[in-house]
Amino acid sequence: MDKLMNSKFFTGIQNLGGKMGNNKYLQAISGGLMGTMAITMIGAVMMILTSILQMLKLITPASQIYSTLMMPYNMTMGMISLYTSFTIAYVLARSLKINPLANAIVSASIFLMVAAPSTSYKLEGGGGISAIPTSNLSAVGLFTAILVALLSVRITKFCLDKKIVIHLPDSVPGFLGEAFKSILPFAINTILFLGVSIAVNNFTGMSLPIAITTLLSYPLQGLTSFWGILLVTVFALLLWAVGIHGSMLAYLVLMVPYMQVITANADLVAAGNDPVYNPLLLRTVIGILGGTGNTLALIILTLRSKSSQLKAVSRASFIPGLFNINEPAIFGFPITYNPILAIPFILNPLILMVLYHIGYAIGLLTPPYILIQTPLPVGLLSFFSTMSPINLIWDIAMIFVGMIIWYPFVKTYEKQLIDKEKTENKQELEGARI
Amino acid sequence: MKVLLICAGGMSTSILMKKLKTYAKEQEMDFDVIAKGLGDYVDVFTEYDVLLLGPQVSYKCNDIRNITQKPVAVIPQLDYALGKADNIFKLISEVMAQ
Fold first, then answer.
1. Final residue of a domain: which of A148, A182, A216?
2. Does A125 fall in a domain?
3. Is A164 helix (H, G, I), strand (E, B) or coil?
4. pLDDT digits over A224-237, tens only?
């Protein structure tokens, strides 16, 4: 078994995973996306509240209170790309050891310029209004936000390295000198991005965010299809099997399109339509029941195990598991470098994904339309993102399906451990006698 | 003594953090510990004596050692999973002694 885990294939995966985990740009994207958690949380709470009132038939989309309640959602989730362009630039600048705040502001303002240029309108009956279109500031513009954040910080870093900055004499106070330093890189960034944006606009007739999303949709089509998601999931789980935090990777690849699908569903629901299913919604099934690999089933199976190791680990990991945190389980049983448990660890999310896919296809499950990034106890994510009790019951039923998948592997492993523990006890006893 | 625990998001190590604190209190040790994610440990590490990594981010060990120039160690899997505070304190004193 050790041979298998030390084979070229697994060491290759480990190296690749390590490299990706160490990459500053990928880290900045995931760090920046996670940095918006508080904002998406507020958006989700308002959306849930509105949904409940709507279900109770207390309000309709036409009522005044509806738009009052949805306003915080529109200002949070509806502008998620703007915040993301800020947070990603902040995290990247910090890791490149240049001024995070200055870079974050530059990135956000450039993103606004290319994604939501302001226009003046004449109002009927005189007067005028200056307005910015917000449609590209929602999840639609996320790819552009990421691109602007990474490139603008990179360009600023380049300018600073090559000393393309305005230097003030040393007699000028430090903070003023710092402020002046960011002027020239900002100007260069602005000219570059605006130039590209205007060119794209004139040649394609599309705004830059729409053009980028359209362009990326071709290569992403494969990855975000049903089979693509299964593939990304297998890869992430293989990484965990060699002890590397693999969910981060799946998060990076799938999170942005996933957010776009959910916010598009939110728009549908707000307009009084049903949310639609997309295979991307299966993304969460990788670890919806007890954390990555859906280990809650494994924990339940071993709570009363005769092996003292299994029992100790499952008791220690039960409560974190209820909150979908399962590092204690992954490293305790262990699942890493342990093929007997790694097989069902990889297998069960895949089987469950097929079952969820069927559940959505036959219309039993409601597709999620509320984006929740905060970790929630098992079942509640499905419930609060869809407001459907059936999704909650389905989750619980899937824990039992998971138990069936884990069972034969757990029993084999348990038997091995019990035998080992017996011989160890015997040796200890004999040792004591001598 | 001040220890910084690092994992991917700072969530699973916070479970361990509580266990270490309770243990230190029982032993009446002068001890402070905090859990941080890979994204934000750089902000605070200067205030800590030892950095301990969760096994899921063990691949960052050399990197973090180079960046921080502090004693860094990876917590063994089983100690991490079961929160074996006594073993982890042994690890801390070993790393500090180096």
1. A216
2. no
3. coil
4. 899 999 999 999 99
